[in-house]
Design goal:
alpha+beta, about 35% helix, 9-stranded antiparallel sheet, 10-stranded mixed sheet
Amino acid sequence: MLAKAGALLGLAAGMTGANAATSLKDVQAAATPYLVAPRVERFALRDVRLLDGPFKRAQETDRAYLLRLDPDRFLHHLRKVAGLAPKAPPYGGWDTEGAGMVGHYLTACAQMAEATGDPTLKKRVAYLVSEMAACQQANGDGGLYPAEWDRKTYFPSLLAARPELPPVTPWYVVHKIMAGLRDAYLLCGDMTARNVLIKQCDWCVAVTSRLSAAQWQQMLNGEHGGPHEVLADVYALTGDRKYLDCARKFRHDRIFDPLAHNDDAVLNTVHANTQIPKFIAYERIYETSGDLIYHDAARNFWRKVVANRSWVNGGDSQWEAFFPPEDFPEKINEVCGPETCNTYNMLKLTRQLYLQEPSAAYVDYYERALYNHILSSQDPEHGGFVYYTSMRPGHYRVYSRDDDAMWCCVGTGMENHGKYGEMIYAHAADRLYVNLFIASEVAWKAKGLTLRQETAFPEKPVTTLRLTLRQPQKIRLQVRVPQWIEPGRMQLRVNGVLQKSAAAPGSYAAIDRVWKSGDTVAVSLPMRLTTVALPHSRAYVAFLYGPILLAGPLGAQGLTPADFHTGGPGDAQLAKKVLPVSAAPTLVGDLTQAVNAVKSVPGQPLAFRTQGLALPHDVSLVPFYQIHEQRYAIYWRIVNRGEYATERAKIGAEEREAQALESRTVDRVRSGEQQPEADHNLQGEGTRAGDAGYPFTHWRDATGWFSYDVKTRPDKPLELRCAYWGSDNGRTFDVLVNGVKIATQRLTGTGAGNIFVTYTIPPELTRGKSGVTVRFQAAPGSLAGGLFDLRVLTAP
């Protein structure tokens, strides 16, 4: 195993100049070798072609979307920072102030070119890479800088060993640029991309070379993506140890050490998608170094997130943060929901772990998240993408517009729908794995074998595998037995003959035989309806049919078509027109028996209807991935019949109070949370953030000051409503609006939990203005805050 890895490293290291690879096959044969050899290998995207079905349609929608975009707009800031004249204006969103999306777009085009064979996309990859090479040459130091501040301030501060605390996250975007270059090389055979990537990694090593261990850890407290993943890849490509050494320095000890020992308490309240790319990279370090502790950390992290921190659709987090699992009953009422980026990264980690340990448990999670979060996150008509998928009953989602909504989940969304072929099949020696039941065809070229999977799953619970071979040969065909199938119900027939199998759900059924062209395997996949309770609660329930999440379409009350398509600055990715939770029907009965009152609709595959289960009326249930541009319910409130009236009255009163507050809200900042604070231009000196766990979890305070830019109404009298911690004592600070003190706040420890204080904003400070700066300034020797929540309200 070690010798094989060494030979691959040597081959990869020699692929420059006159020794350059002559074909894509050569490139991919030498690509990203393992010191720890995987037990199974995935097929290249070019060897898997999707056939007609929901995934093929999503892929084609995404391909049209990618072709609709202008690469020169993504390149705007790279050229500008390099001193080259931009060729087009930038896109909005992330790309307004920096080149946030160019790496994502490069990866997405490379993947889609390989997955579909589209020559236009391959040419676009070559164009993007040539432009990036020109920018790198103009910069003169090997770096590619997404924004002016990155080049002039942040990275020079690292080189000078005086790292600044970034208001945004340069490393995250640099990682995406590095990953895009890697993918352009590995997927499209672009040798220029390889050269630019290596120079970028050399720059990465150099710019961090003077940081002390403590400074490294300080730097890693911010969201930094996974540059160490690509550094480990480049070590594998070149054999140069300096890249692996640098990758190891990105180990964030505060997070890594507990997870390496299977303790995930440190994840409570931390930004979720900051953590997942770290563990993808840790697993890659394990693969290229053999250091087992990195694998332990990645595997433990995956298990904890999937088992304890995930919603029924496979997503995780709320307001982009992990939270204590016992908080699920509280979090379901939020209008936010799991971020699509998180699931994109969880599937990457799942695939890595599966290749090392081909367990069906990994595929069970992958399947649920793929259908119920990733597939559902794309606008099936226009190709826009969902940032947050709300779990709140009766809420809805918004989709990105092309020009001004280049959010992080748009970047990962571009990638999601071009790589559906990566986990349908796998292979090892003489074994062929069928993991997912998706209409497709795979070519195992080394064996002279093509397998065509013909299926309308999940609309029809069957799939047929047709084999074509150059010559008969013995192969073990391993077909996944999903966890959602009842024991003994799945059947396999080879050329019409029923096969005996004792394979249990959550494993693989193996068929050993000499296969010949024309052989077929018919697989029956009988699905059943099951219920899943909200974690740590029996008050909410969701329904699954096999792996398919069923949700209730609830119409578009209070919404127009424009409400579903959004962009621009701030929190535009959040669906904001809230209905009371009590507006969604309630299930009345026993959670364990609810499934018996849900019946299939004749003649409509995957359509169901409750019968006497819901009040004030029964509801329809359909696959969540089919619900678009309307409100929905994934989780349903369930109560005993005798509690129904009391429960509705209580919920209704709470919702009316919350609705009244929302109707007066002009703007809101959830203090201490990364995205809301970034959206409101957090500034400060001597400031810090943390978590208290009740009921607004995050806070911010300062020995100096901190401020937010908030929206106002130029024609209305306004108030500030601030949530503080009632037991904080001895804190005195001023509250200022545009530099004018409107109040001095003293916290004297008189309460418990959150307390709310409302300040009147003098009308002259907001008259004619659409926004102001609110500042919290500590008195000498005191603290400002902690502030948990800030709302700008119209006066009652």
